[in-house]
Amino acid sequence: MVAFSGTRLTCIRGERLVFEDLGFSVEEGAALYLTGANGSGKSSLLRVMATLLRPAAGELCWNEVDVWDDIPAHHDRTRYVGHANGVKPVLSVGENLTFWAAISETRSEPVGQRVQTALDGVGLGGLSQMPARFLSAGQRRRLNLARLLAAPARLWLLDEPAAGLDEGSTAVLESMITSHLAKGGMAVVATHDAVPAGARRLELP
Amino acid sequence: MRGFTDTLRRELRLALRQGGDSLLVVMFFVLVVVLFPLGAGPEPGILSRIGAGIIWISALLAAMLSMDRLYQSDFEDGSLELLVLSPAPLEIVVLAKAAAHWLTTGLPLIVASPLLGLLLNLEAEGIGVMLVSLTLGTPALSLVGAIAAALVLGARRGGVLISLLILPLFIPILIFGVGAVDAALLELTYRPQLMVLGALLLLAAALSPWAAAAAVRQAVA
Predict the structure, then answer these.
(1) What is the DSSP track for A117-180?
(2) A27 and chain B in contact, CB less than 8 A
(3) Beta partners for A7?
(4) How many Å apart are CA A38 and CA A192, to the nearest integer?
């Protein structure tokens, strides 16, 4: 059974202790929801999991192997969705997603078809040719989430993915996560919304 | 290698769509060069003596002017984080960005320089060597600049800071670039200077992707 886990993690940012002695684990087909007040360290924990931040202490393991020993492998199996969407206003919607899909994959098969399917999946299918500067904030967020579909990976790290989304899109996001988990994927989601019943939850102090 | 071509294509497309930017750099370059005859007086003797230096220094300033944009917009819109997290080696991505910077600013400067050489009354032999020295030197400027641009990410007044970081590092390139042209004008051998420039370029190509990638990782942490 594949597992992603952290033990005794400590994170210090700008001399401020964000969290210490924190442990978590996510198994195949399971999601972990991070909850807690603003500033409790949800984003920092996700950034640690993505290896953007190096923890001051503690271990981050994938199948008992330290993640920091093989960073490219970790980047290959992880998709991170942060607060910023990484959308270039002067590129078209399709060009934006094509670039991210191409650079997120080590396989060298063409990404064109998957990009269109992913855009259809988040309801941007008809806007592929449109310059991204005409997208609303919610549509930009959906374009960012489309990366998850266009370049599939085992582990999703989502930092408040529903921010700026309308009800319909939030439902689409939830079904994306459900079907990802059903296929044996894993997800860590920081959220302020209600956590689905039965899902595992980590409350940051 | 895939990360390189994908990033290069994206950067070039961005530069093309945003237009103007490389045109502005070339216009800045031309204007600075044109200011010198006005400031130093129009005697052809003086101008042909210092012409190579004028063109090289103007090229340094123009390259530096465009440097701070290398990662800035990616840093602000979150793209830089995603680039760091992509499985493609960050060193390759950074190298592609430096290559795109050279293609969109260095190359237009080289193209514009012969005309400016004529304007400054440089001899034909000098112009030829200047073209070669710029061709060897400007990629090194983009590579060194890629380190400095990554170091100042997130700093306030990054644009001013970057010039303080970068200009001292440009000095060796300037010395050998101008030295080659001067040697050619004096009908001396200029091969050694060009070879040193080539060596500096190779050194920058080998070292700067690592240094710039480390600085980028630091910036997004």
Answers:
(1) HHHHHTT-GGGTTSBGGG--HHHHHHHHHHHHHHS--SEEEEESTTTT--HHHHHHHHHHHHHH
(2) no
(3) A59
(4) 9
- Is the pLDDT assigned to residue B44 strictly greater than 80? no
Contacts of A105 in chain B (CB under 8 A): 87
Q: In terms of DSSP bridges, do strands A3-13 and A57-62 run parallel, antiparallel, or are they unpaired?
A: antiparallel
ipTM score for this prediction: 0.92
User: Which chain B residues contact residue A78 at CB under 8 A?
Assistant: 85
Residue A155, number of CB atoms within 10 A of its CB: 20
Residue A81: helix, strand or coil by DSSP? strand
**Is the CB of A86 inside 8 Å of chain B's CB atoms?**
yes
Give how far A147 is from chain B: nearest CA, Å: 11
What is the three-class DSSP state of A111?
coil
Query: Tens of pLDDT along A77-128?
Result: 999 999 999 999 999 999 999 999 988 876 667 777 888 989 998 888 889 8
| Per-domain residue ranges of chain B | 2-220
Provide the token pair at A145: 């989430």
Minimal CA–CA distance to B28: which of B58, B68, B72, B71?
Answer: B58
**Interface with chain A: mutation pick from B2, B10, B71, highest number of A CBs within 10 Å:** B10
Minimal CA separation from B17 to chain A, in Å: 6
Instruction: Tell me which chain A residue has its CA closest to the CA of residue B88.
Output: A103
* pLDDT at position B192: 94
On whether the CB atoms of residues A204 and A35 are closer than 8 A, the answer is yes
Phi, psi dihedral angles at A131 (to 5 degrees): -60, 140
Asked if A100 is an interface residue toward chain B (Cβ–Cβ < 8 A), one would say: yes
- Tracing tokens 């085992």 back to the chain, one arrives at A154
| Beta carbons within 8 Å of B82's beta carbon, 6+ residues apart | A80, A86, A100
User: Is A82–B17 a contact, with Cβ atoms under 8 angstroms apart?
Assistant: no
Element (H, E) at B50: helix B44-65
CB spacing of B82 vs A100 below 8 angstroms: yes
Residues A182, B41: Cα–Cα separation, whole Å: 77
Nearest residue of A to residue B90, measured between CA atoms: A72
